[in-house]
Design brief:
By secondary structure, the protein is α/β, with parallel strands linked by helices. The protein is built from 9 helices and 8 strands. The strands form 2 sheets. The chain has a 4-stranded parallel sheet, sandwiched between helices. It has a 4-stranded parallel sheet with strand order 6-5-7-8, with helices on both faces. It binds [(4R)-2,5-dioxoimidazolidin-4-yl]acetic acid.
């Protein structure tokens, strides 16, 4: 099977690390491709960035459909554009927050999310309530800008680890969820060092998408995730108007052949 992981921000180095985490988690025989839009914010830190990352994200999902991908991961901890992405995808689409939070509830009672900036925390608290785990989840911010995680000299990783240790001490956290796709490469080492599950949503979502595809399950199209209705879009957004062009037959066929 083929899984497309979309980093909705436009920082290629982050996409590369996200792709490596997804490939490390995937089963043999599963091809994982990581991509990011070429338009939009370099990082997503709050509601405004999140809004402007969605058009580029949807472009990548549409491209994945034309290439015949079987499932998708949205690799931003805000689960950016998740519902809209599900309306244009046939296969399963998982957000890394949703996947990591549900994994945490299967491994422990209370868990703490350690994210980047404080401004990102309210959206994650809202997602925890939406996913039905709000009463078991504490969200902490490590006061680290997203792109500082791309700079080993920034001290960002040290600050994240310090906040994780505080969460274990002060929250009674039984699991830790890494609250940024850019933290994906910290999970294994921290799990060993801290002696409790430290969950990276990129890996969790990749394996969960594999499971759903392997069960032959796809996104439901009988309700809110039905394909967008045809209508006109004005101005610079005109190219996003539904009906979305059907996957180009040769590209879709090529995609199916690549699946093997
Ligand atoms: C993420 N931002 O996973 C989120 C994390 C955050 O660009 N990728 C981003 O801080 O909201």
């Amino acid at each position: 099977m083929r899984i497309l992981i979309v980093n909705p921000n436009t920082t290629g180095s982050m996409t590369a690390r996200i792709g490596a985490a997804g490939r490390a988690a995937a089963s043999p025989g599963t091809e994982v491709v990581a991509t990011n839009p070429d338009m939009g914010p370099e990082s997503i830190e709050g509601y405004y960035d999140e809004a402007f990352s969605v058009p580029g994200l949807l472009d990548e999902i549409r491209r994945g459909e034309s290439l015949g991908f079987d499932g998708y991961v949205i690799a931003c901890f805000d689960d950016t554009g998740l519902d809209a992405a599900r309306t244009v995808a046939v296969g399963p689409v998982l957000g890394i927050c949703e996947a990591a939070m549900h994994a945490a509830t299967m491994l422990g009672g209370r868990f703490s999310v350690v994210t980047t900036l404080a401004r990102s925390a309210p959206a994650l608290e809202s997602l925890a309530r939406r996913y039905g785990v709000g009463d078991r989840c504490r969200v902490r911010a490590s006061d680290v800008p997203v792109l500082a995680l791309e700079d080993p000299a920034s001290g960002a990783v040290r600050r994240v680890k310090e906040e994780i240790r505080r969460a274990v001490r002060e929250d009674g956290a039984e699991c830790i969820v890494l609250g940024c796709a850019g933290m994906a490469d910290l999970a294994a080492d921290l799990t060993r060092r801290l002696g409790l599950p430290v969950i990276d949503g990129v890996a969790a979502a990749t394996r969960m998408v594999e499971a759903l595809v392997g069960l032959g399950l796809r996104t439901s199209k009988v309700g809110g995730y039905a394909a967008p209705l045809p209508k006109a879009y004005a101005g610079e957004l005109a190219r996003f108007a539904p009906p979305l062009p059907p996957p180009a037959p040769e590209a879709a066929e090529a995609g199916r052949k690549m699946r093997g």
